[in-house]
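[agent] plan:
  1. take the single chain provided in the ticket
  2. run structure prediction with default settings
  3. attach structure tokens to the ticket
  4. add a short note for the reviewer (M.T.)
[agent] executing step 1
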Amino acid sequence: MTSRLDTLTSWSADWAGLRVAVLGLSVTGFSVADTLAELGADVLVVTESASEEYARLLPVIGARLHEGALDGVPPALVAFAPEVVIASPGFVPQHPVVSWARETGVALWGDIELAWRVRDKVVRDDGTPADWVFVTGTNGKTTTTRLAASMMLAGGLRAAPCGNIGVPVLDAVRDPAGFDVLVVELSSHQLWYLGLQAGPDPVSPHAAVCLNLAGDHLQWHGSFERYRAAKSHVYDNTRVACVYNKADAATMRMVEDADVVEGARAIGFDLGAPGPSDLGVIDGILVDRAFLADRRTSALELTTVAELAEHGLAAPHIVANILAASALARALDVPAQAVHDALVDFRLDPHRIEVVAVADGITWVDDSKATNPHAAASSLAAYPGAIWVVGGLLKGVDIGDLVAARGERVKAAVVLGVDRTEVVAAFGRHAPDVPVFEVDHDETEDVMARVVELAAEAADEGDVVLLAPATASFDQFASYTDRGERFATAVRNWIGKGNGDQHGTAPSAGRRA
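[agent] step 2 finished; step 3 output follows
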């Protein structure tokens, strides 16, 4: 017998009166509640805390709110007897309410599954909903999502970047303007929930990529193996192109193990010479040997490393992101010239290997978005020999491997953050000859001024000071954005005070470990 939930695969299906509990009231949770209310469902939002704005809006849209502690299952939720629970991505698999839903047999969805089910609210001229393209990876997701959408727009497609990038997928699905393609950035949290789907119309992207895989969010998932398993769901039911990183064997194994639609191709990318069905680099030229008829003997030029350098896009990990995005765009028949044209105008978001100042021969680079060791390794590869500003909240990740691989190549390290003792110890084990200076200021207002002072005193003309913390920011800063902005402000203040001649000497304070 077909269950009611199995019939809910369209915006025009009968959602009226469906009892749905929405867990969390961030931007994603509100988009879920707003969508369900518009569909006529009976909506109860359950959250530990709600902003004044969202709390005010819920009754306006016709949803109810339960606000209170969630260290157990609220009686109000049990009494509501939901037919579906839709969890915001921040709810860990072991959360009491998530566990209760799974143990009692209540359907458990994420926002992505709901968005897929109602994706036909606005359709294209041919009556079909927008194609979806998925982007995930430990690092580079947002940049690649923006790149792919820009290339598609340059190719004449109405494309919208959405998902973990900041705009909920449900908002994009309901946009009355409509789109040809949704380029969806997916976190490992969203992919874990996507892996639970069991409906008759599973999510099926046109193309998908996992850019790379390294340890991150392990506290959320419980282990690296579970983190990898969640990431692998990005390729489930892919129809046309499974794009993977040839330099990261884990992503290739994901594609090999994926359950895809018959005919879907594996498309590789890396910074080396490409084989047929790959994108890569030959003599400084980015080329496509995957999406052309004569791919065994020919290649299409997309751009050059020299051109990318003119726009600040030539760092190796950014070039890799460009190749991945190009593969996604080419899978949708975007012309090679459109890919090239999009790159001419593309600029990285702030706090991604952003040069914030060059003064007295010192280049100051903000890569505060490098919130884990894998991302920091890419930054250090782009700026070998830099003075490395590192440290923060490690989130249970061992930084030792990164220091062992990259630490000896830096000129000096300036270490900050609540977990700085672990970072200093890693240098002691793996790079004992590198000068390490510990910032023992705990006040947020003071930290970056001291970081810049120490880094400047360690720098000589021609050096790079690189903020690539390899850690989360929440120990001392509101976000990685706040951390990067405070770094940039401290740099500008230091330059503005005329301190340019006070570099190249041993730091007069700070502790050498």
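[agent] step 4 note for reviewer: The CA atoms of residues 23 and 87 lie 5 Å apart.
[agent] ticket updated
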